[in-house]
């Protein structure tokens, strides 16, 4: 039996996810957070904090019962999945022979359709951007407009946007190189209008005192440092509030809208999959949701008995 602490196991698991599985920092953080939630439960329970080597299915069931009272089904399912992967790792490393999560059922999840914006909604959000907005002498209005256009016209995840490099821009060819989940790279088309807005920002960017580690990063804050995920969320939230739209909108909403609008206008699902960087086309298929008016339009246009 190992004398390793939970912290040691979690640290080794983190290294495994990063080096062997090639997962992103955000995904690894979610796994660690879920395991630490289990540790907190064990610490607060009346029983002694047991090693992950000795933990039983009964204990996992107690933990799942507790979180079922506190969390939404989707969050519960993610935690159970994360714990199952953690204990599979312990088996892989010969710390355990069985996985105490194998027989634990995840809650049933209904199909969650992504929120989308209409083209009019997106135009409304872009229209409220103040192109003269400056902070500490740096014009950030043009940067913010380029960010929104990039999210929508390229369908990027937030982490992909913040990590986008100047050396990833291939405007002559009409593409950008995107580093997605697991550091998997893909090339995504970029339109002339978005290129134009990025070029305006690049001219402004030249006058910023840029931190050495951010020299190649495209979107920066006024201090010359890489933008955080939280800052992108803040930018979008302020624009949505200013626009007056009564919708829950995040940076990811622009990615959903990108895929939905392409599909509604006749784009091939496989092409959308490649642009989004989905490993499986079943993930992309969620965008095949179409409202009733669109279905009626399809029938009236294409069916011989319309």
TrEMBL record:
Family: Belongs to the 'phage' integrase family. XerC subfamily.
Domain called Core-binding (CB): residue spans: 4-91
A GO molecular function held by the record: tyrosine-based site-specific recombinase activity
Catalytic site positions: 157, 181, 252, 255, 278, 287
Quaternary structure note: Forms a cyclic heterotetrameric complex composed of two molecules of XerC and two molecules of XerD.
GO cellular component: cytoplasm
UniProt subcellular location: Cytoplasm
PANTHER family linked to this entry: PHAGE INTEGRASE-RELATED, TYROSINE RECOMBINASE XERC
Role noted for this protein: Site-specific tyrosine recombinase, which acts by catalyzing the cutting and rejoining of the recombining DNA molecules. The XerC-XerD complex is essential to convert dimers of the bacterial chromosome into monomers to permit their segregation at cell division. It also contributes to the segregational stability of plasmids.
Protein's name in the database: Tyrosine recombinase XerC
GO biological process, one term: cell division
Domain Tyr recombinase as annotated: residue spans: 112-300
One Pfam family linked to the record: Phage_int_SAM_1
Keyword Protein biosynthesis listed: no
InterPro entries linked to this entry: CB, DNA_brk_join_enz, Integrase-like_cat_sf, Integrase_catalytic, Integrase_recombinase_N, Integrase_SAM-like_N, Tyrosine_recombinase_XerC/XerD, Tyrosine_recombinase_XerCD
Keyword Cytoplasm annotated: yes
CDD domains: INT_XerDC_C
The encoding gene: xerC
Keywords: Cell cycle, Cell division, Chromosome partition, Cytoplasm, DNA integration, DNA recombination, DNA-binding
Source organism (scientific name): Winogradskyella wandonensis
